[in-house]
Design a protein that fits this description.
The protein is α+β, with helices and mostly antiparallel strands. It is built from three helices and four strands. The chain has a four-stranded mixed sheet with strand order 3-1-2-4.
Length: about 80
């Protein structure tokens, strides 16, 4: 199955962009903001804030901006086990 890639913005809200954290996740479909909050709950607990947006990106863009050394070990949003 081909995975999709998404950039997720985590922060405190509008006007606070200097503290925003961007992460790349992979999934089988686009998560809603609420679904991304649940999927990234442990990360959000560590860094604070909440999901401000989820943005689809292609694999090459994801590879150019994020560490793909362990991409096969990344959890997959929407995957059923």
């Amino acid at each position: 199955m081909e995975h999709q890639y998404f950039e997720v913005c985590i922060g405190d809200g509008p006007g606070e962009s200097y503290n925003d954290c961007w992460m790349c996740i992979r999934g089988v479909r686009v998560p809603s903001i609420q679904e991304a909050e649940q999927f990234l709950a442990s990360d959000i607990a560590k860094i604070g804030g909440h999901v401000l947006g989820v943005y689809p990106i292609d694999r090459e863009t994801a590879k150019s901006g994020y560490d793909f050394n362990y991409v096969e070990q990344w959890p997959v949003f929407g995957a059923t086990n």
